[in-house]
Amino acid sequence: MTTTPTPLLSATGLHVTFPGRRGAPTARAVDGVDLDIGEGEIVALVGESGCGKTTLARTLLGLLPPTTGAITFGGAPLGYQSAALKAYRKRVQLVLQDPSGSLNPRHTVYDAVAEGLRIHRYKGDEREAVAEALSRAGLRPPERFFLRYPHELSGGQRQRVVIAGALVLKPELIVADEPVASLDASVRGEILALLLSLRDELGLSALVVTHDLGLAWNIADRVAVMYLGRIVETGPVEQVLMSPQHPYTQALLSVLPESGAEPVVLAGEPPDPSRIPGGCRFHARCQILASGEAERSGVAAKCRTEALPILAGGDTTQVACHWAAATPAAAESEKAL
């Protein structure tokens, strides 16, 4: 029996709540999440706006302390003292979706990339470190970009500068929040190829936060689909996207042009995180329940009344759905595992 390697980052039982205003109920933005990221692994965290994925990413970065739950990195618990967080943020870096907003227009490219070195009081050759980071990010020769300002660069070049700013501290993990959302289609592929090459060359791990399942297919080893504060389906990207078990995942995939499926239009808006429904949290919008398929499978009552457990954070295919658990396809998937 092989021993499962310790994940680089592991979150267990994470809950993040925000108090409501003027007596309103507490919002459960992250409502029970287990998630592991292995060394050299790219995990895509996928879901529509408002599902809690950005709050989860901020919590994993140490920017928000969890209300309950724990995060470990390299097998050690994450501490929230200032010195511990500073050391952690050297090893885990953030790449934001809008390079125009995250780059100071008054700073040169050199200063933007060197900022992290100065914060962490880097003792080596600053110029050499900045040049290496820019080169790794695909801006070559790097010296050509030192004295340029963000407005003098293309959108793709600005995103590469942001990536270089993360790479300069030689992190082990990057968290990329919608890393290509603001870029033209012609540039998106170049940035995704860059992230993949960084994984292959440096052994870099990444959590890619996105609403785009097509992006997840192109870059991720594993995907975690999030709905209303909780991961509802997870597993290797090929299994989840080729044979989605959860109705929510099926609906997200149906709108991709290459899916060939009839687009599924979900009823209503995502529920308020301060009023999470009982039973399956997706049941009020579920196309399987609405069509009568859940009733025919004998699980409609469960869908409306019986809550589902938190999925484990490992790399096996898992789904939080009463209907999927009752269907032959799901049983075959479990048997294959």
Automatic annotation (TrEMBL):
This is Peptide ABC transporter ATP-binding protein. It comes from the Bacteria. One of its GO terms (biological process) is peptide transport. It comes from Streptomyces niveus (Streptomyces spheroides). One of its GO terms (molecular function) is ATP hydrolysis activity. Keywords: ATP-binding, Nucleotide-binding, Transport. Residues 9-253 form the ABC transporter domain. Belongs to the ABC transporter superfamily. Pfam families: ABC_tran (PF00005), oligo_HPY (PF08352). SUPFAM superfamilies: P-loop containing nucleoside triphosphate hydrolases (SSF52540). PANTHER family: D,D-DIPEPTIDE TRANSPORT ATP-BINDING PROTEIN DDPF-RELATED, TRANSPORT ATP-BINDING PROTEIN.
